[in-house]
Amino acid sequence: MSDTYPGSETLPDDACRVAAAKKLRAGSAWATIASSSANGICALARSTRAFASSTSLASRSSMTTIVALGAALVPAAAAMAQAQQKKAVPPAAKLATVISDTGIAVAAAGVIVFLFVADVIRPGSFARRPPRNVVAVPSVIWLCCALLTFLAVVVGSQLVHSLPASMVGEAKALRHEALAQLGGGLLGLGAAAFLAYLLAPRGGPDVGLRVRWSDVPVGLLCAAIAAPLLLATNMGIELAVKASQGAPPPEIAHATLERLVANKTNPWSWVMGVTAIVLLPIVEELIYRVFLQSFLMSIISSTWIALLLCAGAFAMVHYTMVPPYVLPLLFLLGLLMGIAYERTKRLGVPILMHIAFNAANVGMALWAAKPR
Fold it and tell me: I need a surface site. Which of 126, 234, 246, 356 has the fewest CB within 10 A?
């Protein structure tokens, strides 16, 4: 990732960092998601036993940062991070910010036009190109699979909490939180994978329960296409927060992600980070995109309404763990992954999108903490 901006190769490194920080600053509307998403499962488990105040890590969500449309300008936004500057912004940094913001806006507009022309989001497009064949499996089965997977995550996390401190560390220690998140993720993954394996033969190839190596490039491409839309939404959130509060939101508004960054040399931080980037996105996509979205599509005649409801559930499950202004970005992320899943009928696509988004968030948070 370059520290220069297209057409502005002489900009100083600090200028680029200041501009990049503005994209991260949606109070974590971009960076907080990485820390909040995993908690979308694990923290609710905690709340059932008064553990809500010690929510486990920080995870969720994905996105590479370059898209073909406006690709010459979008990389400026990809270099997101750096502590918020309280001193006057240098002219070079202002220029870098203008270039970055313009590139994101142009790319986002281009993506919307492309998706409309390609009949991906045009009204009636699902009638012309049907989504997955979810009716091959009874709706109650889809719902039960979602609930069982969620329960498995809760049980796995609570099992770790029930172990003696000599094995897993004290209740709020980094080691304890990392193991609780890992335990919940592994048990949830095992349950979801087993259920998907049982359903795949019944649903057939169009049910979208098989994973192929070809899903990797398709998923990363979808992540790249979605990135400008998420970045543009992040810009809007920052402007709205500035207008309402008189100051930009904090760059990292989630205590767990701050903890991960503060302890980045601790091996348990890396366990937590890998779990957040790889394991939990797989589990969450199986819960929301596969099981819950399929359930909603099987009982609602409109695919679009089902996708919107699923994206809303995906966002609202985090409402106790992130600032309210982050929820629109979570909603959009869930909607984009849902659309990609129905259009490609490939399970690996939303999973790769989610992993890429989470990796970008954790990476940006670590880059923000890098000494200058």
Answer: 246
